[in-house]
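Dear colleagues,

As part of the handover before I leave the project, I'm documenting each prediction I ran so the next person doesn't have to rerun anything. This entry is a single chain, and its sequence is reproduced below.
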Amino acid sequence: MNTLEAIASRRSVRRFEDRPIPRETVEAILQAAIQAPSGKNRQPWRFVVVSGEKRATLVKILLDAVAEAKSRGEDAGSAEGTAHVMERAPVTVFVFNPIGTDPWAPRSVDQAFQELVDVQSVGAAIENMLLAAQELGLGSLWIADVLYAYEELRSWLGEAGQMIAAISFGYAAERPAPRPRRALDETARWL
């Protein structure tokens, strides 16, 4: 499969087979991640891999945070459904920017710009992981809903810095159809 085919055929998968992923396969995905370009080669990423029995704790932390948000009358979006996806996924990788600060922390304009560059770099690493998973025959789901349990998950995972996202991986038990995309003439202008 070439790169353009991988990009065109990759889908967000929410149902996974009950089948473990070999450690070597997860390591290959992480190797792809660290090959991503980064601003000034800062490589602002750290990964925490959650698998096996630890998934139950992960899901409980997220569901407890969702319940707490709901008790305050807050909308937790799709986080509850995402927790159940993570429960079935054999592996979930959390992605951190170890030199980033919490979203609510004050920062100078220079710090904000540097963090923006770092988050873009982390995004490139995440995309590399998604495409590597596709190449290796795995489904994946890029997850932002973990931010509903930002402090609780970061503490449990024992990782400092800014939590950016999580990605769940597994052998796909579904083949989602392509999602609609805006036409190129709606999204790009030529000068």
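The chain has seven helices and four strands. The mean pLDDT is 96.

All the best with the project,
I.
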